[in-house]
Amino acid sequence: MIIESRFNGPPQSGNGGYSAGLFASMLAEAGPAEVTLRRPPPLDVPLRVTGTNPVGVYDPDGELVAQVASTDAFQEIVPGVSEAEAEQASRTYPGFADHPFPTCYVCGPERPDGLRIFPGRLPDGRTAAPFVVPEDATTATTWAALDCPGGWSIIGPGRPYVLGRMAATVSELPAAGDGCVVVGAAVRTEGRKALVRSALYGPSGEPLAWARATWIAI
Questions:
Q1: Are β-strands 55-58 and 127-132 bridged in parallel, bridged antiparallel, or unpaired?
Q2: What gap in Å lies between CA 169 and CA 155, rounded to an integer?
Q3: Which pLDDT belongs to residue 156?
Q4: What is this structure's pTM?
């Protein structure tokens, strides 16, 4: 397994959501999965996978990168909004002015070849953004789309966070070219940790995937 450099979050490591989704695909059982990132996922190097459930992911030096296991079928889904509301919120995306990782594959404004998900705040504090599904979308792409909208519900100026743990349920993969909406919400913060949730809605307004995640302030 290799995380290609184009799927970066911070410049020298994999986007947390994309990496977690790729690691989750190694589970023997289908269904909700939870991924704990033990270190920033390295790019363009072969990663060794051990086990089937749980799964361990190791770098070439034998350092543990991530642990993966099946999890409960949680149903706490962030409520969706219309595409028009998501587009309006996206215009106020704080990452346009202050972004800790502006080349992030998912939400980086300096990535014309990325997913271009720019989550702005709704009046109630949730985040929302439109998302056009790319032609090469995979399950890992769906995890990636769920990642940053949750993070931006707690990221503030001068206060960057990175993904530490993520669990996701993918009920249905969106089709290439679909115009979707992604939403995120903060649940609570505990010191440097923040618990967030996110959800991906299809063109008809149906929830296709949802996630819960722990982000860590750096």
A1: unpaired
A2: 24
A3: 85
A4: 0.96
